[in-house]
Design goal:
globular; about 5% strand; 2 strands; two-stranded parallel ribbon
């Protein structure tokens, strides 16, 4: 999508950032286009993607993805995309629907908690029971 950006970051569909993760945060300037860029880039490259969505719904990302030539629904159903619905967890945290449950975003409201439950969800989705990644292609 953005050839110049890929060149600056030294990555592309065949060269994902192995052994690291991409955290996108913006202030003063809207940067959500980067989310769509990275999703389409790595899904088109055939890589498995773990996406923790905290800003929009799945249907929003899917609609934009279709405009970029990818189907997030198909990628999710095939196991290429692991989608973690952070909006649902944040709503559950706000409403405290089940106070006895462990919310993956529990550390947002309680500084004595950590993000281990969120890590566990991601690890379960992308790793086998031995703790190794379940696919030979990188998970980005």
């Amino acid at each position: 999508m953005f050839t110049e950006l890929n060149a600056i970051l030294n990555q592309g569909p065949s060269k994902p950032p192995e052994g690291s993760f991409i955290l996108l945060s913006d202030s003063q300037t809207e940067g959500t286009f980067l989310i769509h860029h990275f999703l389409s880039l790595f899904l088109k490259g055939g890589h498995r993607v773990c996406f923790i969505a905290l800003a929009q719904s799945f249907s929003h990302y899917h609609a934009v993805g279709q405009k970029l030539g990818i189907s997030l629904t198909t990628a999710k159903e095939s196991g290429q995309l692991v989608y973690v619905d952070g909006l649902k967890y944040s709503l559950d945290l706000h409403n405290e629907t089940d106070p006895g449950s462990t919310n993956p975003l529990q550390s947002v409201g309680d500084k004595t908690k950590n993000l281990q439950p969120l890590f566990d969800i991601v690890a379960k989705a992308v790793c086998n029971e031995n703790g190794t990644v379940t696919d030979r292609k990188s998970v980005v």
